[in-house]
Design a protein that fits this description.
Layout: H1 4-23, H2 38-42, E1 47-53, H3 58-71, E2 75-82, H4 84-92, E3 98-101, H5 107-115, E4 120-134, E5 142-143, H6 145-153, E6 170-174, H7 179-189, E7 200-202, H8 205-214, E8 218-223, E9 232-236, H9 243-247, E10 254-262, H10 267-277, H11 279-287
Parallel strand pairs: 1-2, 1-3, 5-9, 6-7, 6-8
Antiparallel strand pairs: 3-10, 4-8, 4-9, 4-10
Length: about 290
């Protein structure tokens, strides 16, 4: 006798009965397939977001946008650099949804926005330390904050005056549209002073890193996310710039990085900002060499 002819149908019947019992259904009332709920449909994000501003934030902002769009195919995010001032101006002009900035918004920028009926809201998204960098061949490894100020004001012009070789210091700075330029001026050069006229103004962190790599007499400043072995970090007041010293506040040239919006973000913008401030967004902050929020 071929037992399979009897065992298989019996087993199938038992499995069907068990399934119906677990589902609380009867044979006369078969379970219907689940219909998509309105709640489930609402979870699929759609829309577009435009972001412009800080060159310091550009790499991490690009990583944020690419990862978020991978998870949400219905969302399109455009990210541009150009500097903090450029991004904030674009927000005030209504041409972008978010402005990225490596400095706090200025009083005059807030006044301009309010004059247009806008309500600018600040969102802290990461922490950065501004590293002072020189060529690896430079023997100077530590400068006081006061010496650094004198160098960038043009009051100290030769490396021999701070323990280096007899060579004229080549000053490298970000251009004036940069939030890093503004922050470094306030923290190092001095609010009531100006950068030395001899300072070479460059358009990006990478441009400064490249120039320092190529010029043994150069000195510049860049965000932590742009440090490589091609440049040498100079400690400031005995503390070297790093993720750890920026996080614990011991490095004297540390700052928050921001996104600005007109009013509290809604809809897809709110979802994007929440994601940036969440675990995935803050992990990308760390991956790009910056400091996650505490």
């Amino acid at each position: 006798m071929d037992l399979r002819k009897f065992v298989a149908p019996a087993l199938a019947a038992l499995l069907l009965a068990g399934t119906m019992a677990l589902a609380g259904c009867s044979a006369e009332e078969p379970a219907s397939e689940a219909e998509p709920t309105a709640e489930g449909a609402a979870e699929e994000l759609e829309g577009s977001i435009t972001v412009q501003g800080s060159d310091t934030l550009l790499n991490v902002a690009t990583a944020w946008s690419e990862s978020f769009m991978d998870e949400n195919p219905g969302v399109d995010i455009s990210v541009q650099g150009g500097g903090s001032g450029t991004g904030i101006a674009a927000l005030i002009n209504g041409t972008v949804d978010f402005a990225n900035a490596s400095r706090g918004i200025k009083d005059e920028e807030i006044a301009e926005a309010e004059g247009k009926g806008m309500d600018i809201v600040e969102h802290s998204v990461a922490i950065d330390g501004i590293a002072v960098v020189v060529n690896p061949a430079n023997g100077v490894s530590d400068l006081s904050l006061d010496e650094l100020g004198q160098i960038f004001r043009g009051e100290i012009t030769n490396w021999k005056d701070v323990g280096g070789i007899d060579a004229e210091i080549v000053l490298l700075s970000r251009d004036s549209s940069s939030g890093t330029y503004e922050f470094f001026k306030e923290a190092v050069v001095g609010e009531d002073f100006e950068y030395a006229a001899s300072a070479k103004l460059l358009p990006s962190n990478q441009a400064i890193a490249d120039e320092v790599t190529a010029n043994e007499a150069g000195i510049g400043y860049i965000g932590l996310g742009y440090l490589t072995s091609d440049v040498k970090i100079v400690a400031v007041d005995g503390v070297e710039a790093s993720v750890e010293t920026a996080a614990d506040g011991t490095y004297p040239i540390s700052r928050y990085l921001y996104m600005y919006s007109d009013g509290e973000p809604q809809g897809v913008m709110a979802a994007y900002l929440d994601w940036i401030l969440g675990a995935e967004g803050q992990q990308l902050v760390e991956d790009e060499g910056f400091v996650p929020l505490p």
